[in-house]
Amino acid sequence: MKTIIEPFRIKAVEPIKMTSREQRAQYIEAAHYNLFALASENVLIDLLTDSGTSSMSAAQWAAIMRGDESYAGSPSFARFEAAVRHLMPFKYVIPTHQGRAAERILFSVAATAGQFVPNNTHFDTTRANIEALGARPVDLVIEEAQHPEREHPFKGNMDVARLAQFIEDKGPQNIPLCMLTVTNNSGGGQPVSLENMRQTKALCARHGIPLFIDACRFAENAYFIKLREPGYRDKPVVDIVREMFAQADGCTMSAKKDGLANMGGWLALNDDAWEEQCRNLLILTEGFPTYGGLAGRDLEAIAVGLEEVVDEEYLAYRFASTQYVGRHLIEGGVSIVRPVGGHAVYLDARAILPHIPPLHYPGQSLAVELYLHGGIRGCEIGTVMFGRKADGAEEPSPMELVRLAIPRRLYTQSHMDYVLEVILEVFARREQMRGMKITWQAPALRHFSAKFAYLD
Ligand SMILES: *Cc1c(COP(=O)(O)O)cnc(C)c1O
Which residue is closest in CA terms to ligand 1's atom 4? Predict the structure, then answer.
């Protein structure tokens, strides 16, 4: 088999700035060793997130010129709605400025204080929006997901037996809806199988609980199903996508992921009464229902993005580039979360830096070193992000990871070869790396703004 190449050529280029190690040392010191505080122009390869960072195609830029900015009844909305419903055949589609706005509207309508919302693993905005209403988010992913080194083809699956027990314990009347996140972002970008979706849906249906899909990476999840789930190899991805959404009563979506757009999202659902309340909330805080929080041109870019993201040549390349990085790291002896997920590679900082205890933030130390050594920006997902409890006490996060998220269609294979070289060089000198301490932190979501220093 030949090399899987980028299935596109480059029409517009954006220069990236080369920096020396001395310059980067100054920038990161001035940023108090917090990668969120860097100016992005001082980052060479930015793997902080795959959200909103995709390259748009020539067809998307052309569609942007067609955007109709009418306040009501825009044909851009009609094209957006048709593109969404082609893949996700729900009765109603409500555009929003991004995924979290769809979440806020849905939970405001569906959930009340004291209720429970189960999911395989809630993404942090989903969790926060549920908590903001006084309701409780619960993660019920399968046990394998807690073990970075264990292989499983669908490590994002819901633990259906635990969900059944949970519904029994809490009572279906206290569970306004259940969610499935595809792929499971917080769990390493791991997919959910169609079999698991069917079982989850059947269980929820028996108790009259609606099932919603957090759909951000639906196309990547469908491609994993095609490759890994028995019986799907010869099915078109579009058909798999439609079968996935046929298991659900609605979905929330961030178009900044598999919408291949830089902004946008939506809420889709079938229930008439919920739709009416959601639409009223939408008008209150996002805008008229034919534009939500978006410009007509954004709706056009998403409509075209949805056609392109289910193109199997694109998905083969997307999958190959993430697997390529993961495979070479494993061959180089670097511990990563296995199997490699759809949108990111997660370095296991606890295994790589066993001499740095969790409360000395091995993930942060590794992320800073990747920047210092090669100008690469990743994201700590460990004790810095999750280690502080509500009462202010600190305890180790279950895992110490550094996420390297790969933006869609943005970087080429030589960029990824460079990333591999940098990681392997840092890995070779891992014993010299030191732990860190926090010198200042905000009361909530501290990872965005905390200041760090090296321990002596
Ligand atoms: C990004 C994301 C969201 C939130 O979407 P935004 O557009 O960032 O508001 C929700 N769920 C998952 C799984 C995500 O990855």
Answer: 99
Q: How far apart are CA 342 and CA 183, in angstroms?
A: 7
Measured CA to CA in angstroms, residue 448 lies from 236, 273, 320 at distances of 40, 38, 31
CA-proximal residue: ligand 1, atom 5 (nearest): 99
- Is residue 129 within 6 Å of ligand 1 at its C-beta? no
From the CA of 101, give the closest atom in ligand 1.
9
Q: Is 310 in the pocket of ligand 1 (CB under 6 A)?
A: no
Location of structure tokens 């992320």: 367
216 in contact with ligand 1, CB cutoff 6 A? yes
- For the Cβ of 119 lying below 6 angstroms from any atom of ligand 1, the answer is no
Residue 452 alpha carbon to ligand 1 centre in Å: 27
Report all structural domains of the chain as residue ranges with CATH numbers, in order of start: 21-50+311-454 (3.90.1150.10), 58-308 (3.40.640.10)
Tens of pLDDT, residue by residue, the chain (456 residues): 788 899 999 999 999 999 999 999 999 999 999 999 999 999 999 999 999 999 999 999 999 999 999 999 999 999 999 999 999 999 999 999 999 999 999 999 999 999 999 999 999 889 989 999 999 999 999 999 988 889 999 999 999 999 999 999 999 999 999 999 999 987 789 999 999 999 999 999 999 999 999 999 999 999 999 999 999 999 999 999 999 999 999 999 999 999 999 999 999 999 999 999 999 999 999 999 999 999 999 999 999 999 999 999 999 999 999 999 999 999 999 999 999 989 999 999 999 999 999 999 999 999 999 999 999 999 999 999 989 887 889 999 988 999 999 999 999 999 999 999 999 999 999 999 999 999 999 987 899 999 999 998
Residue 305, H or E segment: helix 296-309
For residue 100, the CA-to-ligand 1 centroid distance in Å is 6
Note whether 45 and 252 are within 8 A (CB). no
**Cα–chain-centroid distance for residue 247?**
21
Contact yes or no for 339/153 (Cβ under 8 A): yes
